[in-house]
Amino acid sequence: MPTSPVVTRSDFPALERNLGDVQLTYLDSAATALKPQVVIDAESDFYARLDGAVHRGAHQVAVEATEIYEGTRAKVAAFIGAATEEIVWTKNATEGFNLVAYGILNATLDDRANPGSVDERLAIRPGDTIAVTQVEHHANFVPWQQLAARTGAEFHVVPVRPDGTIDLEALADLPERTRVLAFTHASNVTGALTDVAAMVAVARERGALTVLDACQSAAHLPLDMGELGVDFAAMSAHKMMGPTGVGILYGRSELLAALPPFITGGSMVALVTEQATRFMPAPMKFEAGTQMTAQIAGLSAAIDYLNGVGMGKVAAYDLELGDYLLQAVRATPGARIIGPESGERLGLVAFALGDVHPHDVGQYLDAAGIAVRVGHHCAQPVHRALGVQSSTRASIGPYTTRADIDRFADRLAGVRPFFQGTA
């Protein structure tokens, strides 16, 4: 059993914070990870010294800003096993999924106006299907639901089993004309890891594009997009100890080249005339307007920090401490774990606690300085499928300790007696 985090806790200033007369115990890393001081300093330093517009000037400040912007792109590509030109900057993962969905919508409209003018893989036609799983975060569910509605495609939902894991046997029911299969690498509700190879194999049999939600996994597991074999993947820097306001979209280079942009304007054009506009090649054609370069500088520092620790060590620690967290919740009288209690999973546990509302659970814990997430976690379909409207979720990071989980478990044990005693 792990005895200490794989990072230095003093690197994270938020952990020094007191809430009233108690010190913060942070168990909400699945929502957003705490930032090490080097990330905070990198973003601040950019504003202090390098606040130049990228790709827009020949002066030294702009050149240095561009070097950070493009250098971080290459660093992220290496971090997730991709080519540099396969990385697109977005403001978050949600925008990344929408970029792909709206790009496909634009390709579909182009195809309908001029049949055969776009890559066949990107055109949605009557009788086609767009599929997601029931466990998806709304960010990888709603854009595809909307795309289906706007193109007239069937919207197909792959169900979950009673333990909240994706029903792989139900993949056999995917229509032959499935064009998109969107799925999570690791659920933000159940913590369960998806058999990516099985999903990709079924999609390839049908000629469908695969879109992976890697928001949870990118912060806890080594990633290699080539090995995973997906066509697109999105993740958010703020879950990887980086700043808010910047996301990462991975896309196979040939698909990014064929995908039309959905935000247009400055910086993403090669030529603009009164008659027409010619776009830059990918990834720049997707990066219109002034970019979030200060946040990208912070992400660069976050990647350096994670590489310094080693994602193998982060993953091993997450596995061991995550099991300790799972056992702590399991031992709490009246607790029902939302999701599987075995198998490959990340260090997060969502649960219901008898008839006590999750918001009451969260407030009771917060009074002791313990931060957890309550609600439906932007994943209403899977909550309904598992018979609850909402849940409480505790999640760990590389800075979490056994003592944090022990404090949480001790306080959690008092929730039901407290509310039953005041009913």
UniProtKB/TrEMBL annotation:
Catalytic activity annotation: (sulfur carrier)-H + L-cysteine = (sulfur carrier)-SH + L-alanine
Entry-linked SUPFAM superfamilies: PLP-dependent transferases
Tree of life domain: Bacteria
Claim: Cell membrane is one of the keywords in the record: no
Any one Gene Ontology molecular-function term assigned to this protein's record: pyridoxal phosphate binding
Domain Aminotransferase class V, residue spans: 25-408
Keyword match Nucleotide-binding: no
Record EC number: 2.8.1.7
Record keywords: Pyridoxal phosphate, Transferase
Cofactor field: pyridoxal 5'-phosphate
Enzyme class: transferase
One GO process term, biological-process aspect: cysteine metabolic process
Similarity-based family: Belongs to the class-V pyridoxal-phosphate-dependent aminotransferase family. Csd subfamily.
Role description: Catalyzes the removal of elemental sulfur and selenium atoms from L-cysteine, L-cystine, L-selenocysteine, and L-selenocystine to produce L-alanine.
Record protein name field: Cysteine desulfurase
